[in-house]
Amino acid sequence: MKNKTLFLAILFAAVISSCLFADDNRLIFTEFGVSYASVIAPPLLENSTTGVLGTASFDAKVGVDILKWADVYIGGDFMSFTMRQNYGANYTFYPIYGGIRANIFPDWIVYPGILFELGKAISSQHLDQDVFNSPLFGELNSPLEYAWAGTYYNFGFDLNMNVNDIAILSLKIDRPAISSGGTNLGEIHILRVGLAWKMLY
Fold first, then answer.
1. Cα separation, 131 vs 88, whole angstroms
2. Which domain holds residue 17?
3. What's the rounded Cα separation, in Å, for the pair 89 and 105?
4. Which residues have a Cβ under 8 Å from the Cβ of 85 and sit 6 or more positions away?
5. 167-174 vs 177-178, strand pairing mode
6. 141/99 Cα distance (integer angstroms)
């Protein structure tokens, strides 16, 4: 409860500050991104000969731009990983989160940024009967369809280019993690590299 109250207080302060000091009255931004995502842990799922395939990851954000130096936002992602050994099995994640990004020297043509996100991931595991009976998944003791709401957190780095006064193109690298519910996998760690397009309003 304390964490939620603190987050709401920071968000409220960011909105008020933006309204008072915004550059050219551009308070709000939207951002859309696409990335290549690869599972790097646990070993059972990592992108290898026995794990899952890499996949496209899509994300969208809307938030408040604070004097160009910081962004406070809410967002959502979509990722679905197919098992290498059987294409009928997959893991799907829908993270929903709040985040903050610090922009370093944002008036430069190209500038770096760092971000942190925290939220929940609506997650599901689908296994077909052949995979369910294999030694690879026998230890999980999971049903063919299993869904859970896991904790999601993410940190990353981006390199941004000011295309014009309202548009920013970003190259981003981040490392989201999702708790795995009752599947005995531990945290699922993902490495993503991609591009994002940010618009200021």
1. 8
2. 2-200
3. 45
4. 50, 131, 134, 136
5. unpaired
6. 35
**Cis check: omega of the bond before 42, within 30 degrees of 0:** yes
**CATH at 112:** 2.40.160.20
What is the model's pLDDT at position 147?
Answer: 87
* Tens-place pLDDT, residues 129-145: 665 555 455 555 555 78
Amino acid at 108: W
> Which residues make beta-bridge pairs with 200?
29
The CA-based diameter of the chain, rounded to the nearest angstrom, is: 61
Q: How many domains does the chain have?
A: 1
The residues near 130 (Cβ < 8 Å, ≥ 6 apart) are: 86, 88
pTM, two decimal places: 0.82
d(CA 38, CA 34): 13
